[in-house]
Automatic annotation (TrEMBL):
Keyword Coiled coil assigned: yes
Protein name from the UniProt record: DUF4097 domain-containing protein
Segments passing through the bilayer: 102-126, 138-158, 170-191
Coiled-coil annotated residue ranges, if any: 13-40
Keywords: Coiled coil, Membrane, Transmembrane, Transmembrane helix
Source domain of life: Bacteria
Domain annotation DUF4097: ranges: 215-366, 373-513
Natural source organism: Enterococcus quebecensis
Length: 518
């Protein structure tokens, strides 16, 4: 036999009519093997000569059938060791056949995925060349690699040009390797933009406003300058070419409104590093708006007068001093916020991190999750503090109304005057030397009150421990009640002046009302 056709005819003759479907599958495998060998330069005669005789292949096939019959038979005349050996070989063949079938089924889907990836990286390359005047290093290398893999997967559908396809795939891989080495040596794997410096001057102090947003790492500073100067802005650092053009072509009259390094999927391989922005604000100038929206950065903001003060920061620290505004809003997810000697109605939202506010005039609202809030020397009509599991400390302040609530954190208020409400579900409440009226509600955590002066108070707890220390020289009649806990009240027989009243109750917790000892 010198041709595959003759070989297949003899093989078909060795198969029974009912097994012709299995023969056809075997025929496809042999023809595919022949095509690969021919592509490698072998002749058809050489390939056929190396194949096992048709009778032997047919005998193996029917041996497998006999194995199935022997395994399923009630009695077996075949030696057990032989059955096990044939079974193992049969299972290997079946697994190989199953793997080939799965690959044939999944190959179109895999090619589709590779095509989608190639399209994305190709668009990435075109956009970066067009907008940034830069050849995207990593996407270019990946495009070449994806082309090589795709050609290898698709070559089974091109029977006459497989050698050409192999050569083209090797060429793509080689070019990709050379470019990868080049980009690595020259430091161009990631696009880093170019160094840039620009000063932007506004035309007038009247109704001036600044708005700056960036998804890159930015250091922000404000500087107070002479009242004779105009508001201005300085940007310095590495920027993408498209952002540089945005700055150069921007229209600036009385307002700067810039959005730089805006994050998108086509900046996956862009690394511009930290930039610097400085705002120059003339003394006495009242801005219409001062807005910063940053993904990450550090802010040092001093001596700003504005109608609206707005900071939106994902990570990074804020230090602000002498900020005068009608309304203020600070949203900092993971950084520290420090505000000193300022006046505004302020809202602060933080997931974690530290919030420190001292010497502030105006209403205050803080929404937190698990951070630390330290507030000192506030003068406010309304203070609202909400925290989940963090710690809130208010000291030496004056407010008409305070509402401090937590789920499982700590609420500590010291030396503060006003109508004070402190509520917690299972955390700790501490009230020390406050003036005004106290309303303390705790579910399951401890409540501790230390007082030298007289106050009106209502203290309630589900099962938490309550301890009240009162200066005996400022005694107040205390009414205390617990259903099942231990009760001790040193002020149960104090005279009732009628002006001050303290009511303490717990459902199941212990209550101790004790004389304060210096």
């Amino acid at each position: 036999m010198s041709t595959m056709e003759e070989y297949l005819n003899q093989l078909k003759a060795a198969f029974a009519e009912e097994d012709i479907e299995d023969f056809n599958e075997l025929k496809e495998d042999l023809l595919e093997q022949l095509a690969i060998c021919l592509e490698e330069g072998q002749t058809e005669t050489e390939v056929v000569a190396r194949l096992a005789p048709p009778e032997e292949i047919a005998a193996d096939y029917y041996a497998d059938l006999s194995l199935d019959a022997a395994i399923n038979a009630k009695t077996s005349v075949v030696p057990r060791e032989e059955i096990q050996d044939v079974f193992i070989q049969t299972q290997k063949k079946r697994m190989q056949k199953f793997a080939k079938t799965v690959f044939k089924v999944l190959k179109p889907l895999l090619l589709l995925v590779l095509l989608v990836l190639f399209s994305f990286f190709f668009i990435y390359i075109v956009k970066e060349i067009n907008e940034e005047r830069n050849l995207a290093g990593i996407p270019t290398v990946l495009c070449l690699l994806l082309l090589a893999i795709s050609l290898q997967l698709a070559k089974g559908w091109v029977s006459k040009k497989r050698r050409w396809v192999n050569g083209l795939s090797i060429s793509f891989v080689a070019i990709g390797a050379v470019l990868l080495l080049f980009f690595s040596v020259t430091g161009q794997l990631m696009y880093t933009g170019r160094q840039y410096y620009k000063e932007i001057n506004l035309s007038s102090n009247n109704h001036a406003a600044f708005s700056f947003d960036s998804d890159a790492d930015v250091e922000i500073t404000t500087v107070e300058v002479s009242s004779t100067e105009k508001p201005s802005l300085m940007v310095k650092g590495r920027f993408k070419e498209s952002d540089i053009q945005k700055i150069e072509n921007g229209s600036y009259d009385n307002k700067v409104n810039l959005t730089l390094d805006e994050e998108n999927i086509f900046d996956t391989f862009t690394r511009t590093g930290r930039s610097e922005v400085i705002f120059f604000i003339p003394k006495g100038t009242i801005l219409d708006d001062f807005h910063l929206g940053l993904s990450q950065g550090d802010l040092r903001l001093l001596d700003i007068q504005t109608k609206n003060f707005d900071l939106d920061l994902t990570s990074g620290d804020v230090y602000a001093k002498n900020i005068i505004a009608d309304e203020g809003n600070i949203d900092s997810n993971y950084g520290d916020v420090i505000i000193e000697e300022s006046a505004m109605n302020l809202k602060v939202k933080s997931i974690s991190g530290k919030t420190v506010i001292t010497g502030m005039l105006g209403d205050l609202m803080i929404e937190g999750d698990q951070g630390l809030s330290i507030l000192k020397f506030l003068r406010s009509d309304n203070v609202v503090l909400n925290n989940h599991s963090g710690r809130m400390i208010l000291e030496d302040s004056e407010t008409k109304k305070l509402a401090a609530t937590a789920t499982e954190g700590q609420v500590i208020v010291k030396r503060t005057k006003g109508d004070l409400l402190m509520a917690n579900e299972q955390g700790k409440i501490v009230s020390e030397e406050n003036q005004g009226t106290l309303e303390l509600r705790n579910g399951y955590g401890p409540t501790i009150v230390i007082q030298s002066s007289k106050v009106n108070a209502n203290v309630s707890s589900q099962s938490g421990f309550i301890k009240w220390l009162q200066d005996p020289d400022q005694s107040v009649k205390v009414t205390a009640n617990t259903e099942t806990g231990e009760l001790k009240n040193d002020f149960s027989k104090a005279s009732d002046s009628g002006k001050y009243k303290i009511d303490v109750k717990s459902k199941t917790g212990d209550i101790k009302i004790l004389e304060k000892v210096e």
